[in-house]
Specification:
The protein is mainly alpha-helical. It is built from eleven helices and two strands, in the order E-E-H-H-H-H-H-H-H-H-H-H-H. The protein folds into two domains: 24-82, Homeodomain-like (Arc Repressor Mutant, subunit A), CATH 1.10.10.60; 84-211, Orthogonal Bundle (Tetracycline Repressor, domain 2). Helix 1 (26-40) crosses helix 4 (68-81).
Length: 246
Amino acid sequence: MIYKSRRVTISKAPARKRGRPRNFDRTVALDRAMWLFWERGYEAASISELTESMGITPPSLYAAFGDKKQLFFEAVDRYQAGPARYVAAALREPTAERAIRRLFNDTINSFCSSERPKGCMVVLSATNCTVQCGDIVGALAERRRLAQRAIRDRILVGRKAGELPADADVDALTGIVVTTLYGFSIMARDGASRASLIRIANQAMRLWPKRRGRADRGARSADTLINARRAHARRLAHRRVLRAIS
């Protein structure tokens, strides 16, 4: 703000910034926090463990990120935009079936990688939280609902495009996909092999409803013809019997 008198213009001096300038890379520190939360969960990761992993002091953590809860939410954002970005990429496949098959495969590759924590951060990082962390649990549940909605929307688009039968149950199919993905997360954390999860994914995809196309119509036509010929043969046999006894 500027104050004016008759002869002199006085400018208000700019406020001095409080605290020392940041002497660490915020992005690197956030990545390290994400890694720890992903591996240990929200409550199990203490402030001392976080600051040691991030290479900063507690005052620096609070100055840069606000508090542990805000740091966690930023770490989850970082996870979804980084290690978990394969989800959005898979759902852009040209057909719903290819999208879900790729989603399964990319999920397994991520969860079973030796270069990162096992499983899904959004699924596992608040499974053992107390009631005091209800907002953490609720926020992650909402993120999972958004992911489920994206999967459902992709399957629905596929049904509208004629890739699935018109009577395919989109909600039930979405539930199968999501439940399988959550199961992968827990099994990977428990040490399941990539090969075992791939077999599960392949079996789950066998439940995918197939569109009744030309091949199905041709098979039904062939069955109809065979049944008609059998019925005709039975009628002829019946007539021969009648002639024999008459």
